[in-house]
Design a protein that fits this description.
alpha/beta, Rossmann fold, 7-stranded mixed sheet, globular, binds S-adenosylmethionine
Length: 226
């Protein structure tokens, strides 16, 4: 009976993600304009992403601690930007682990690769993604993480399905996202409840909203692949 239900769920999720791929229109056609520019100012963004008032940067060590990564884990940092989390993940999983730094901007990936080489982090591999796919190998990672990226997905249903595809069975997804409130209420597309509903629809189960010291305007969600 359990096996029948599992197969049925698999088929429904498969059909739903196939439909999502076929039908989804961009929910934010201009949101990644800056990141797609041939003149992307990588150093400028590196300064911005490490800004003193940026929670995603200030709370980074607490976020990584809350994720309880293990030595040898394979982790994907989707929408890695300039790699503030990639570096910490690479240190957390050690030489026997692996970190895929994934982004749509090749200039960010080149910057990350350069820094990883400088820091002697041989477990970092960059993977060029697109608006509709991470291009990560199937069932390759224990953990997918993205920070300040969900509202940058032009095709969230497609990306959620693709992230699910890249995760191993029972894999974990961590979403660090900004509250749709205050100064961010226009820039951020969806409130937290809608983000949870969209991700669960793609075949994930919310485990918890993780309580991370230092996060006030952002939240960290922990999901498990169904
Ligand atoms: C606001 S930045 C956050 C960067 C980094 N995660 C951080 O917190 O410092 C958003 C990033 O998402 C990337 N991005 C947007 N859409 C993406 C997609 N479909 N797949 C992968 N990366 C994407 C952008 O290129 C950009 O680097």
């Amino acid at each position: 009976m359990r096996r029948t239900l599992a197969v049925a769920a698999f088929v429904v999720i498969g059909i739903a993600s196939g439909a999502a791929r076929a039908q989804e229109a961009s929910v934010a056609p201009t949101i990644n304009q800056n990141f797609k520019s041939a003149d992307l100012d990588v150093e400028g963004w590196a300064t911005r992403f490490t800004g003193e008032s940026r929670e995603a940067f200030n709370a980074r060590h607490a976020v990584v601690k809350a994720m309880a990564l293990k030595t040898g884990d394979a982790v994907a940092d989707v929408g890695a930007g300039t790699g503030i989390y990639t570096r910490l993940f690479a240190q957390a999983v050690g030489p026997s682990g692996k970190v895929y730094a994934n982004d749509i901007a090749p200039q960010f990936l080149a910057y990350i690769a350069q820094n990883a080489a400088k820091d002697g982090l041989k477990n970092v591999q960059t993977v060029q993604g697109g608006d509709r796919a991470t291009n990560l190998p199937a069932a390759s990672v224990d953990v997918v993480f993205h920070s300040d990226v969900y509202h940058h997905f032009e095709f969230p249903a497609v990306m959620n399905a693709d992230i699910r595809r890249a995760l191993k069975p029972n894999g974990r997804l961590y979403v660090l996202e900004m509250e749709k409130a205050g100064g961010q209420s226009t820039h951020v597309r969806a409130p937290k409840e809608a983000v949870i509903a969209e991700i669960e629809k793609a075949g994930f189960k919310l485990v918890e909203q993780v309580n991370v010291p230092g996060l006030h305007e952002n939240y960290l969600l922990h999901f498990r692949k169904n």
